[in-house]
């Protein structure tokens, strides 16, 4: 998860700028969401049952459909990804399934490129976006972090995890790279619209002596990993859980190595349209419920990302 964080444009995501790819024993991961109308309805209290105790908190339209459409970049293991059978798995899908039991609905993940998820949310293609998306003030306010210009009304976030951004290299190579400043004069591969891309651009401006950082951005993190694996770059960067998972699993652990410390630790958030406060609050209630019940910890431990666990859900906790 992602600094896909940290991708900090309207669709930027560090994806955490946060704890990333970790042994997520279940699948690698990614996701997104959209917005919903608010209508509690006079019969809302009848929908809450012992099987779905929080159903009455959802907007009536969603209760009636029984589905929450989730926009997600499903190529970001272990947060969200496709397993060998083509099933969407990972941290986000598992958490969503647990939340769905509280709310009495199914979370349906729809694949999309990370930098298009918030746009899809605004156009009602998705109800929410859940995809290791870093909660940032820029995203909350609809500001393009690169230009500083407003590009939309922004979104609200329900924060559920914390992660930072990491650098990784081919195993045994480029041992002189330890920090972001060591990338001057080097080439790095990243996922487009992520915090990793933002950090690389910011660091390139600090380079001296006629050097810069060559940045190659891809639609998804797997493409970036493929380029690095083939020797087409000196380093790669993604959210720590994702980078750690790639280091552990790619080539049986022989392809990559993590270098330096993770930076830019920040919360992952579920993005919800600004005008959809009822859905936002229902999601927070569901997250708090699975945290209290222990279901949240089970998912986090399953994927080996305990360091990023939170004690309670937070709304718009990003900076």
UniProtKB/TrEMBL annotation:
SMART domains: PBPb (SM00062). InterPro entries: Solute-binding_3/MltF_N (IPR001638). It holds the Pfam family SBP_bac_3. Residues 67-307 form the Solute-binding protein family 3/N-terminal domain. Keywords: Signal. PANTHER family: ARGININE-BINDING EXTRACELLULAR PROTEIN ARTP (PTHR35936:SF17), MEMBRANE-BOUND LYTIC MUREIN TRANSGLYCOSYLASE F (PTHR35936). This is ABC transporter substrate-binding protein. It comes from Streptomyces cyaneochromogenes.
